């Protein structure tokens, strides 16, 4: 069949009458699809989908016969009930759907359709997997199932003595009972006798059945054009053939069943998603059983991270309280506020149009800064560097326990089937280097390199776009700072008179720039998200794990630059290269480089972190709570007579929001970005773990509430660990040591104060050799002669006292009149050497501690290793014995025949021999 023929037929259909157009499309369809389509339509090879009415059992999870369980639901809009002029346009969708459902029935699935109770145009197709199909695909997907109960005695917990206290922090054991532990093995259809099958209806859990149903739906064909086979429910959903596809919740979340035991959804809501139980541990086994291992491992990680944050939050809160107490005894802060010291120090203008200002005008800022810039911050930064190592190492141990308990120890990537999108594009052949078998691939090696190169180039372009936006914000900061300072100096801001004494140019610039930065971050996130998904689709990864890992790296790299670049600028760039008043550094040849406050940029970094973390948390909660609730409410309100009719379970779930396949990806991304804020810049904001802890306590319950009440049941998926997020967390942990050491060294004022305390503090007071911080402010400010400025300062000088000849600026330089005037003095080199030495020493100590902790703490607990070995041994013994029994059973008839045959032959030979013997020989 040629393409030209198809195009010609399509053009004829456009010009024909309505009836002829329908017949013409039938011809085109018959040409494009399999030859068996006609036989499928006539019911010769496959029975048509049975259509039944609603049986008035709203919470039923079965077909109308009450026996066959509903494993999946497909929803479509009936084309026959559409308007006449639109009906012809929908025929192609109808035929694709009919062929798809016929393919499902050929694969052994059973279908039953029922019309909607609320919307007469909707049809719901119930999908059931018979026992034989379940056994087949359980073996295909390597699902591990019980072979015998676990006979190993568990080791007693070290917390058993505190059971009377800890039991209140766990779900009610009467409602959520502990499951019986089994040794498991990958299911094999021809060895069913080896597995612990008590009830065939309960042997495969609903989540397993839904997972197998989804796998089959992703493999079923719906169209063939030439040599191209089109298959998979994803494409049909995207093209509108089906409106939704989802597994069913097992009941209402807020109503307890009177006839049977409480549904798992009801238990999850009351013991997990209900806000009143925020203090309780999560029922992870039930979460995993209901939603699958992938969702379970996410909530396990989130709960473990939150629990570890509690320790960091306590220490961080202690450091914050220490800062509040030390604020009263901070000598350098008192000197800034002292009218006899800070009140008499005139500071040089910080921009070309700014005015002179008195140091004690920053008294309030210096007092707030002393809360965060103290010795406790150094201790807390070192503690957090060790904390993050303990967190990752203990998480590996906990993850190993979950891997064993949830049967994902031997879950390997080669067991994961290829994505349907990947298989549909496989047109080239190559020899597999592992198996030696010729297989089909979607592109050649050269084509793969081209696709990856385009993806890398696109990501680099967007990262450069982020950096350009950061430069634009920097220019905004400079322009606003100059404008605000000029207007303030000329008293042009009369409308701000009540708050003018509280709002400084630095504060106004910092707050507005932080807000603009946050808005730009959110806009770029929305745009880049689409680009990253498009690039990943273009690269065409083989498996879902490869797809998610590729998308994870792209998104995190972008988010890392997007969220953290402004913080890195404030911490390590701003105020570091400014020159001095007589020779300032110019940006773009016009704007004078932005300077920090006399207390440094640490307070501004703290403000930036607080705004981004707080704004991000509020925005995410709006997205996760408010939007789903509003969408569901509007969906119910727009439905006709929804509240007046009893709707079945499948239609109630259809009215909920669908969770995208990347739903968990965004949850992980949100938490990992927060993890970066908590670890990378914690030296400037000890309260970051406290804010993160409060946010996560809400996050767990909000996510649980969203999954349980506002969303359709997600398709269960297998997962061994948190995937690509694990190396990302490890990379953040390594980088956090360097960033915190550099923040303390270059952003805070701690190292210069320590150098002054130990090296220079005794010189101004030679009669007293005791080290003191008195005179530090005067020592940290250099002197500049106004007459040495190459700029016209006539206008600026009008704002200065009449007898002013010098001003002060923050730096360590020789004063005017010195042979090396305005060059860095000896104190500067002492401070610089101390900063570099501090970074090297702290990094080496912390990295050595991290290495030792990683070596001492094993990734897999010893008890788990024993249980894994025991399970492997039992699996080998049971399956090996079964194999021997099967072989013996098969060979026994052959052996018996052989023995019987040999015995018969022996008797014949004996009779013949006796006939030839004499009587004497016979007696002998």
TrEMBL record:
Pfam families named among the record's database cross-references: Anoct_dimer (PF16178), Anoctamin (PF04547)
GO MF terms, alphabetically ordered: chloride channel activity; protein dimerization activity
Cellular location(s): Cell membrane; Membrane
Coiled coil stretches, renumbered: none
Residue spans crossing the bilayer: 298-324, 375-395, 461-487, 507-528, 672-694, 728-747
Domain of life per record: Eukaryota
The name this protein goes by in its record: Anoctamin
Species of the source: Oryzias latipes
């Amino acid at each position: 069949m040629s393409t030209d023929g198809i195009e010609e037929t399509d053009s004829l259909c456009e010009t024909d009458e309505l009836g002829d157009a329908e017949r013409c499309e039938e011809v085109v369809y018959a040409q494009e699809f399999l030859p068996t389509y006609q036989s499928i339509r006539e019911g010769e090879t496959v029975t048509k989908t049975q259509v039944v009415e609603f049986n008035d059992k709203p919470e039923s999870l079965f077909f109308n016969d009450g026996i066959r369980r509903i494993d999946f639901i497909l929803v479509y809009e009936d084309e026959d009930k559409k308007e006449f002029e639109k009906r012809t346009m929908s025929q192609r969708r109808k035929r694709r759907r009919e062929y798809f459902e016929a393919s499902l029935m050929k694969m052994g699935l059973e279908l039953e359709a029922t019309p909607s109770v609320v919307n007469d145009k909707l049809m719901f197709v119930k999908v059931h997997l018979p026992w034989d199909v379940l056994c087949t695909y359980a073996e295909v997907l390597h699902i591990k199932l019980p072979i015998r109960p676990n006979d190993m005695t568990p080791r007693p917990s070290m917390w058993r003595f505190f059971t009377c206290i800890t039991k209140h922090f766990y779900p009610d054991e009467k409602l959520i009972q502990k499951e019986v532990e089994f040794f498991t093995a990958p299911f094999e259809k021809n060895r069913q006798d080896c597995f612990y099958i008590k009830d065939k209806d309960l042997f495969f859990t609903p989540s397993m059945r839904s997972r197998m149903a989804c796998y089959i739906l992703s493999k079923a064909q719906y169209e063939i054009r030439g040599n191209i086979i089109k298959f998979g429910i994803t494409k049909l959903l995207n093209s509108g053939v089906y409106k939704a596809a989802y597994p069913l919740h097992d009941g209402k979340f807020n109503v307890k069943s009177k006839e049977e035991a409480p549904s798992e959804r009801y238990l999850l809501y009351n013991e997990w998603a209900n806000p009143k139980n925020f203090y309780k541990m999560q029922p992870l086994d039930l979460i995993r059983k209901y939603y699958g291992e992938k969702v379970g491992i996410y909530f396990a990680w989130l709960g473990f991270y939150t629990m570890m944050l509690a320790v960091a939050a306590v220490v961080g809160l202690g450091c914050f309280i220490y800062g509040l107490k030390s604020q009263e005894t901070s000598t350098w802060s008192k000197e800034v506020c002292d009218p006899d010291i800070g009140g008499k120090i005139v500071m040089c203008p910080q921009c070309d149009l700014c005015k002179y200002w008195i140091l004690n005008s920053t008294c309030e800022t210096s007092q707030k800064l002393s809360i965060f810039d103290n010795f406790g911050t150094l201790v807390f930064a070192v503690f957090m560097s060790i904390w993050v190592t303990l967190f990752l190492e203990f998480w590996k141990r906990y993850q190993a326990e979950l891997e064993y308990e949830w049967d994902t120890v031997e879950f390997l990537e080669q067991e994961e089937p290829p994505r349907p999108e990947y298989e549909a594009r496989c047109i080239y052949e190559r020899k597999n280097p592992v198996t030696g078998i010729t297989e089909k691939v979607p592109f050649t090696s050269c084509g793969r390199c081209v696709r990856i190169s385009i993806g890398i180039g696109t990501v680099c372009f967007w990262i450069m776009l982020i950096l350009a936006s950061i430069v634009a914000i920097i220019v905004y900061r400079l322009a606003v700072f100059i404008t605000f300072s000029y207007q303030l100096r000329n008293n042009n801001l009369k409308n701000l008179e009540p708050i003018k004494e509280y709002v400084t140019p630095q504060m106004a610039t910092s707050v507005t720039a932080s807000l603009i930065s946050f808005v730009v971050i959110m806009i770029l996130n929305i745009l880049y998200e689409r680009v990253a998904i498009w690039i990943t689709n273009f690269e065409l990864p083989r498996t879902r794990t490869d797809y998610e890992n590729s998308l994870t790296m792209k998104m995190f790299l972008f988010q890392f630059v997007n969220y953290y670049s402004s913080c890195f600028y404030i911490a390590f760039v701003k105020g570091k290269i400014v020159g001095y008043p007589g020779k300032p550094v110019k940006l773009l040849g016009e704007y004078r480089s932005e300077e920090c406050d006399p207390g440094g940029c640490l307070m501004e970094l703290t403000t930036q972190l607080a705004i981004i973390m707080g704004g991000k948390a509020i925005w995410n909660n709006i997205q996760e709570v408010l939007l789903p609730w509003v969408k569901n409410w509007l969906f119910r309100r727009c439905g006709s007579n929804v509240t007046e009719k009893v709707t079945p379970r499948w239609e109630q779930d259809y009215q909920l929001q669908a969770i995208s396949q990347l739903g968990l990806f965004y949850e992980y991304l949100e938490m990992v970005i927060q993890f970066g804020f908590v670890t990378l810049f914690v030296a400037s904001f000890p309260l970051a773990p406290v804010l993160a802890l409060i946010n996560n306590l809400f996050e767990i319950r909000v996510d649980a509430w969203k999954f349980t009440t506002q969303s359709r049941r997600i398709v269960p998926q297998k997962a061994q660990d948190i995937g690509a997020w694990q190396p990302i967390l490890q990379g953040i942990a390594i980088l956090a040591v360097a960033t915190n050491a550099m923040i303390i060294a270059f952003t805070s004022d701690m190292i210069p104060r320590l150098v002054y305390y130990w090296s220079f503090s005794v010189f101004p007071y030679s009669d007293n050799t005791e080290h003191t911080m008195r005179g530090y402010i005067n020592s940290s400010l250099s002197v500049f002669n106004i007459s040495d400025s190459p700029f016209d300062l006539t206008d600026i000088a009008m704002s200065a006292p009449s007898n002013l000849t010098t001003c002060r600026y923050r730096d360590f330089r020789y004063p005017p009149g010195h042979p090396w005037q305005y060059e860095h003095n000896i104190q500067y080199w002492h401070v610089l050497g101390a900063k570099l030495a501090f970074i090297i020493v702290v990094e080496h100590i912390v990295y050595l501690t991290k290495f030792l902790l990683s070596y001492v703490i094993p990734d897999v607990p010893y008890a788990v290793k024993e249980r894994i070995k025991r399970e492997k041994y039992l699996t080998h013994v049971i399956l090996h014995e079964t194999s021997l029994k099967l072989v013996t059973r098969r060979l026994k008839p052959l052996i018996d025949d052989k023995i019987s045959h040999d015995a018969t032959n022996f008797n014949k030979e004996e009779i013949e021999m006796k006939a030839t013997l004499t009587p004497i020989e016979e007696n002998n």
